[in-house]
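Box S1 | Example of a co-folding query
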Amino acid sequence: MRDCVENIDDDNFFAKKRHKQHYKRPIEYPFKESELKTTTIIFGGLTWKHEILLKASFENLGYLCDILPNPDFESLQIGKEFCDPGLCNPVYFTFGALIKYLKKLEASGIPKEKIIKNYVYLTAGSCGPCRFGMYESQFRIGLNNAGYTGFRVIIFQQNEGLDQVKEEYALKFNHDFFLRILGSFILADILNDVAYQYRPYEIETGSVDKALKETIDKAYLNLKIIEYPSIIKKLSKLAEKQFFPNYLLLLLKIVYFYYCKEYNDIPKDFLKRLKRINYNFFKIKPIVKVTGEFWAQTTESDGNLNMHRFLEQNNAQVIPEPLSNWIMYILHQSRYIKQLYISNNFKSTKLLSKNAKSIIKELVGIIIIRILEKLMMLFYNHFRKKLNKIPFSLPSQDKLRFLSKKYYNPLIEGGEGHLEIGKTLYYSLNNLCHMVISLKPFGCMPSTMSDGIMSSILNHNNNVLFSSIETGGEGIINMYSRVLMTLNEAKEKAKNEFEQFIKKNNIDINQITNGYKHNFFPFRKKGEKKNILFSIKYIEKSLN
Ligand code: SF4
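Box S1 (continued) | Returned holo structure for iron/sulfur cluster
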C-alpha cells in the first residue's frame, strides 16, 4: 500500500504495472510411450485398500507405479509452505505427501533430474465452481517452488467419460483403464464396508484388519495377473483396425469382468476369513454414517483427524462412504441436466420443433448414461451378493436428489453438491444409522453451504443427529470433543433401542447365549426400517 501511495505520482508507475508478464502455464513434457518402461506413475489420497487394488490394475495394464504415503500433519505443513495460501487442505495434504515421497527418493540417492524425468504424478481433475479446478495448477506451482520444476502432473478429467485417449501418450485413458479403475473401486468399497461393520465386534483386536489385509494381498495378485481370454484379445486387434465394433468389444470385456474368477474370488475369500473370527455382538454400538467433502470423508489419515478410527475407539460402528457413490453421482448429474433440458423443451411445441435435433441427441445421452448406471449397480450388487449381501447397497441417486431438493438445488455443483444433505436424510430417515458426521476441510465452500442448511433440516426432523467437523489440522481436541458430545447422544439412542427391544420381547439374554463369544453372523441389508443394532439382530436370529 505504501509503495502504491509513494509511487502514485510517478508517471512510470502504471506503465511498469502494465509490463508485468501475464501468467503462462509452464511447458510440461508429455509422458510418452517410449518412457513406459522407465517412468513410474505415483498416486495417492485414497484409502490403502483402494490404492493397492488400483496399483494392481495399473501394473496389469503395463505401467510402473507406486503409492504415496498416507498424508500426515507434516505433509500439511509442507503443502502450506510451497502452495499458494488460502487453498483447501486436501491440496496441502496430498501435495505435501508427494513432496515427502520425492524427498525420500532423493535421500535414497536418486538425483533430482532423474526423479523429474522418471516419475509422474497422476490425479483426477475437474473444472468447477469450487477450488477443485485449481488443484492441478497448484501442484505445478508447488512443485516449482519446491525445486522440482518440470515434474509432470497428469490429469484425467472425471467428467469426460470413458475415452480420453491421446495417441502419442503412454497413459491411455481408455475403456481398459476405466474398467479396471471401476473394478478396483467396487471391490475395495465392498471389502471396506464389511470390515467396518465387523471390526467393532471382534474379540481379538486386529483380527478383522488382518483378514482384510490378507484378502487385499490376494486381490492385488489376482488383479495384477488378470488377462483377457484369447478371443477378446483377437477381437481387440480387429477393433484396432476397425473390423470389429468397439462397443461390442467393450460389452464383451464387461461380461468378462463380471464372471472372471480373479474378481469373484475376492469377496468370497474375505467372507471365508471373517468366518474364522470370534465376535461379541452384544456390544451396543451406535452406527455413525460418515459424509462430507469427498476427500475429507474418504481418507483414513491426519487429513480428517483419523476420524474413522477415533469413532471406533469410542465405541461406534462406522459406515464409510464408498467411492462408487461418487461415480454414480457424476453419472446422475449429467443425466439430470439432460432430463431437465428435454422437459423444458416439452413446454411448447415451438421449442420442440426448434430443438428437435438436440433433444434426440440428449435422449440418446440419457439412454447411454442409464445403461452405465445400471451396469455400475449390477456390478456392485453382484459383488455384494458374493459377500452375502452384507455391504450396504448404493443409495439411489434419484432418491438422494429428491430428498435434498427441498433444501439444496441439485443443479448447484462443486464438492459433493446436494449429496451431503441427501445422504444425511437418507441414512437418518431410513433408520440406517444413529448419527451422521460430516467431515470437511477448513473453508470448503460446498460443505459450508450444506452446514448452513442443516439447521433447518434438524428443525424439521427430530430424528436426525448430526455433527459437522472442520479438519484443518488445528483445534483437534475441540473437534474431538464436539464429536463426542453428539456421539454420546447417539449412544443413548442405541441403548434405549436395545432396552426397549429386550423389554418388549421379555428376553433374558443369558438364556439365549452361552457367554459372549459369537460365531460369524451375516447381517444382511434389506431396506431396514426398524432395528439396526447388531445386538438386536443377533438376538432376533437366535430366537428364530
Ligand atoms: S469441495 Fe471443498 S475442499 Fe474440495 S476443492 Fe471444493 S472447496 Fe475445496
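Strands lie at 40-43, 64-67, 119-125, 152-157, 287-292, 317-319, 435-440, 466-470. Residues 1-8 have pLDDT under 50 and may be disordered.
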